[in-house]
Amino acid sequence: QVQLVESGGGLVQPGGSLKLSCAASGNAFRIYTMGWYRQAPGKQRELVAHITPGGSTNYADSVKGRFTISRDNTKNTMYLQMNSLKPEDTAVYYCNTYGNRWGWGQGTQVTVSS
User: Fold this and answer.
1) Does residue 48 contact residue 67 with C-beta atoms inside 8 Å?
2) I need a labelling partner for 83 at 20 to 30 A (CA). Which of 5, 7, 17, 114 fits?
C-alpha cells in the first residue's frame, strides 16, 4: 500500500503564496495520474488539479491561473504552487491518484486569512 504524506501548509494572508508537497512511498507513483484535492469545513472533498505521469495538467476553474501542479518522478513527489490565495482556498489539502486509488494521508491545512 502506498503511503502519502502532504506538507507545506500554513497560515497566509490573502494574496499570498504557499507551496505544498506530496511524498509517496515506492515507485508506483510514477505510473499514475496524481491529483491534489481539498476539503473545506462542511464541504465535500473536491479535486483541485491533476497531472499525468508525462506532465499534462488540468485545473478546476476556481484555481486556474493561480495554482500550478507539478511532479518529480525521480523523487516520487508532487507539488502544488499556490499563488494569489483567497480566503475561499482555506481547506485541508490532500494528494492521491486521480480516482482515489490509494488511502488518504493526513492532509495539510491551508488557512488564508488576514
Assistant:
1) yes
2) 5
CB neighbours of residue 33 within 10 Å: 16
DSSP secondary structure code for residue 43 in this structure? S
Question: What is the Cα–Cα distance from 6 to 100, expressed in whole angstroms?
Answer: 15
CB 58 within 8 A of CB 43: no
Dihedral angle computed from the Cα positions of residues 9, 12, 14 and 18, in that order, rounded to the nearest 10 degrees: -40
| Per-residue model confidence as pLDDT tens for the chain (114 residues) | 889 999 999 999 999 999 999 999 988 999 999 999 999 999 999 999 999 999 999 999 999 999 999 999 999 999 999 999 999 999 999 999 998 889 999 999 999 999
**Cα–Cα distances in angstroms (integers) from residue 93 to residues 27, 74, 83, 105, in the given order:** 22, 23, 15, 10
Identity at 14, one-letter amino acid code: P
Give SS3 for 29. Answer: helix
